[in-house]
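Internal tracking record. Fields below are filled automatically when a chain is submitted to the structure queue. Please do not edit lines marked as system-generated. If the sequence contains nonstandard residues, flag them in the REMARKS field before resubmitting.
Queue: standard
Priority: normal
Entity type: single polypeptide chain
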Amino acid sequence: MNAYYKYLHNQKNKEIRGKDIKYTAKVAYCNECQSEIFISELRDKNLESLDRNYRLSEELIQVSEIKEVLEKYDIGKRPLSLVLGWGKGTLSRYVDGDIPTRQYSDVLKRVKNDPEFMLELLEKAVIDAVILNFGCYSGRILENMTHAERPWRETRNGLEDHEPSDRIIEKHLIESYFKQIREKYNMINVSDIRDYSRDLFEKIYH
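SYSTEM-GENERATED OUTPUT FOLLOWS
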């Protein structure tokens, strides 16, 4: 026990968004005058307790669960926000304590509990990014882009440009090439595909 003050646990009530929320607050009292003492660390802990109980009453996702999602999929707050189609700072606000709407909370809960759903979101985000950043080019330009990439050139090694071929591009060539592309352009978000598409276009036409 501290020589100057003691801790007590008090049951308190607080109205949040029109709902009365009960929570347990840890309060410090002076040992001499018995007056309540303000301690910032206790205030923060009590606010966390209030927030946790409010989310439980409303069946909203907890901050700790949102952090679990980020760790589970090894993804940052901004990238996940973009994958979900939200503003890039949305997840940062939620991790910092902002309370999500029920709709956003339900989406995060599903991401947490359903890896297949997360995979679908990632695949859609990648496809959307490819369409956005490559769909602006004509078929001829896209053909020239693919022909400029290393997997195509290595597979057709020894052939003339217009010589027909039934050679199949091996998957390991594609995987190795795009792994290097990801590292070169520091691709953290699906939106980073834009830099690669622009550089590839400039490489061919400039």
